[in-house]
Amino acid sequence: MSNERNRSNWSDWIEEGKKAPNFCLATHNRETLKLSSLRGAPVVLSFYPKDDTPGCTKEACGFRDAARQFARHQAVVLGVSGDSTLSHGKFRAKYDLPCTLLVDDDHAVAERYQPVEKVIPDLFPREKPPVFSSATHSRLPRAARTGSLSTACYAPGRGGKRRCLAKRRWGSCGAHL
User: Fold this and answer.
1) pLDDT tens for each residue of the chain, 177 residues long
2) Catalytic-labelled residue, pool 56, 61, 153, 173
3) Which of 9, 52, 79, 131 could cross-link 101 (Cys pair, CB 3.0–4.6 Å)?
4) How many CA atoms within 13 Å lie on the side-chain side of 116?
5) Is residue 161 part of a domain?
């Protein structure tokens, strides 16, 4: 799939009712997590390029700051990047991130999900097999300019409507702001 296609038609490959590709990845604490083990719980997958970089840190802190709202919906937030377990552990500790960070060192999962231009699928694997409930294209460049929370604030609603879980500005995330 070309970058051009991903940029213009990112929803072509990820659509409501389409089976979510299963994966098994190491976590920040060196355990193993299978997507299929989370059946029945709403899951938010956040693909990001690198730990402890300005944009990724802002987005991760946005998820952290909205943790209560995600918990209210019993949603599991997973961050996915190619960084090591050691890097993920340091990143979580430095910014007090409550989410599980997954190691996709060969980028195989990212390639399967194709998160080009920051597509973040919100997975609700209640069905067997898990299926996509919705996908949201990150507005990270706009968020960086305005300081407003990007896709971390959205959760799929019933009937295809979206509701905002956290209408807020980015919280204090340390040196990167």
Assistant:
1) 333 333 334 444 556 666 778 899 999 999 999 998 988 778 888 888 899 988 888 889 988 988 888 888 888 889 999 999 999 999 999 999 999 999 999 988 888 876 544 434 443 334 444 444 444 444 444 444 444 444 444 343 444 444 433 333 333 222 221
2) 56
3) 79
4) 17
5) no
Stated pTM of the model: 0.64
Radius of gyration over alpha carbons of the chain, in Å?
Answer: 15
Q: How many CB atoms lie within 10 A of CB 159?
A: 5
- Answer positive or negative: Cα dihedral of 126, 129, 133, 136: positive
Strand order of the sheet with strand 32-34?
32-34, 24-27, 100-103, 76-81, 43-47, 119-123, 132-137
Distance CA(31)–CA(21), nearest Å, equals 20
Residue 35 lies in a domain: yes
Question: In the structure encoding, which two tokens stand for residue 69, read together?
Answer: 């709202």
Q: Does residue 56 carry a catalytic annotation?
A: yes
Tell me the residue length of the chain: 177
Question: What domain range is 109 assigned to?
Answer: 3-154
